[in-house]
Design brief:
By secondary structure, the protein is an alpha/beta fold. The chain has a single domain, classed as Nucleotidyltransferase, domain 5 (2-Layer Sandwich). It is built from 5 helices and 7 strands, in the order ββαβαβαβαββα. The chain has a 3-stranded mixed sheet with strand order 1-2-5. Strands 3-4 form a two-stranded parallel ribbon. Strand 6 and strand 7 form a beta hairpin. Helix 3 packs across helix 5.
Amino acid sequence: MVATYIDGINMYVEELIYSTGLTNQDISKEFDKLKLDRRDEIFADSAEPKSIEEIHRMGWNIKPTKKGEINLGLDMLRRYNIFVKNTSTNVIKEMRSYKYLEDKNGDLTNKPEDKNNHSCDALRYSILNKLMRPNYGKYAVR
């Protein structure tokens, strides 16, 4: 779980949870430890609809992510200067090792490697679900 904050063309990233094997109860307890507000929007991997529903029933404002096209999310991320909090060691490690696949000639393709990218995926989800819809939920003025 990462928190993302936008200020103009700067994106600030903070790693909040980086763990495997957590039950939904464990995740809820981690949210409590972080003192998250139950109204905070949390986007979760849409591949886990039962978990999302269970955590939602525990009172959290958790929603399935709209994953969208990977390259679209990466293109959106490139529009920002990304600053990662120095205590976010796993995010830093992932971002340093993030790479694109090579074709048979050793040339880079436009397809990213799908490993060690959990926090990078979370960053993409924040862009695709919230930042691409800045006026979502606001009234249109005509």
